[in-house]
């Protein structure tokens, strides 16, 4: 098939880009390579932004700093403070207030929140649905949808009916489509346990479709069905993940569970009779009925045993990462095929580092199927590839590495003083000793296709950190940004890199929080910042 016929038009453009294969042509069109295709302007602009940002003359300047006695959160250009009562935009040249609501009572405290953005190409029932909103869960079991621009309550749903009183967590099953509201683990009071009363229901899960917000159903995770040693549950990408105290992880088809065990579908605002109790679904005090009753153990999709229930799936073809379920194997990662549990060639990854904080590993969020393994002074980006002459077997190969700058670090066990006295050290430094440059954070900026790392060196009470941008394809260092504020490695830190913005949130002891905002500026002779 000739590409001109497949493209149905501009032959000059095809000849200019040198495309002579229909598959390549269709791929390039899907990626927005031609001027009349949707998305090409955005791609060009982001490419320009990446080039400008990585220029030597471009700097990142600390334009705003604030401190708070309550947690600080960041979502898509918005900084939330005072338990989401205060919203500040970080997109402007100087962060400015979007809205400030009056201080809420303890009974209205927000437990968790998710940012909800409008899906593309869909007709929605309300004009407010086309703007970003914030879904929040309050301590009194109200699910609220708030305007991201004003904080106004757009929708409210009461969750807790007769079955559950303590919903605490929000998460996505399918991002921006299906949301899960999870309860805290049900625990009987001590007096009830002493009286011999048994608690069989461990968790409740409420499932919602978003935009428009609609109730799919609520189900319980019961000991009688899933076993006595269940410690936690999660739902992701249509999979129900059940974790057990002995390190076992089991996967079930969540969509099949909803379809098989749904007793009766109900809608928000519908008058409903549930076990003799009549009320309006989603209104106080009726709440939501538990209309999905799992009466038998669902078909098991997969199970694995891993230390601390650490289990990840990714790559292509599908693989999973576990740590053998023994404490002596902590820091050892096995990469196995999901199809037949076969260990990949070179599939045992171990940093062999001596450090207080363990190394960590995960599938690359860029959907390339690669794996990122982070140690104190080394980041390895690994890839899956076919074993030569064995197409059905995969091996783990190194794509590139990023090494911490420890050129000036000397760790001799024997030193000689100025007077000539020989001094022998009784100990050796740990690999993550604060006086040596150590990787603390690794992240990926998807719009600019950059891998970002935060490396820290602490001498005495003064710690210094820098944020580095690396080419995601080859790992080449493109830009380094020193953070002005001191970095204490004993504190909790979060660093967000969002296009031309860098934001650092720090949690100090006694619930003291700080936020530092950096923005990209063009350097001039008059401005050394």
Comma- or semicolon-separated keywords:
disordered N terminus; 4-stranded antiparallel beta sheet; 10% helix; 529 residues; globular; Lipocalin; mainly beta; 7 helices
Descriptive overview:
- The protein is mainly beta.
- Among the domains are: 15-54, no CATH class; 105-305, Lipocalin (Beta Barrel), CATH 2.40.128.
- It contains seven helices and 36 strands.
- The protein has a four-stranded antiparallel beta sheet with strand order 1-36-35-34, with no helix packed on it. It has a four-stranded antiparallel beta sheet with strand order 2-3-4-5, with no helix packed on it. A four-stranded antiparallel beta sheet has the order 6-7-8-9, with no helix packed on it.
- A hairpin with a 3-residue loop joins strand 35 and strand 36.
- The longest helix is centred in the first third of the chain and has 14 residues, at 40-53.
- The relative contact order is 0.10.
- One of its GO terms (biological process) is protein ubiquitination.
- One of its GO terms (cellular component) is Cul4-RING E3 ubiquitin ligase complex.
- Keywords: Membrane, Transmembrane, Transmembrane helix.
- It comes from Tychaedon coryphoeus.
- This is DCA17 factor.
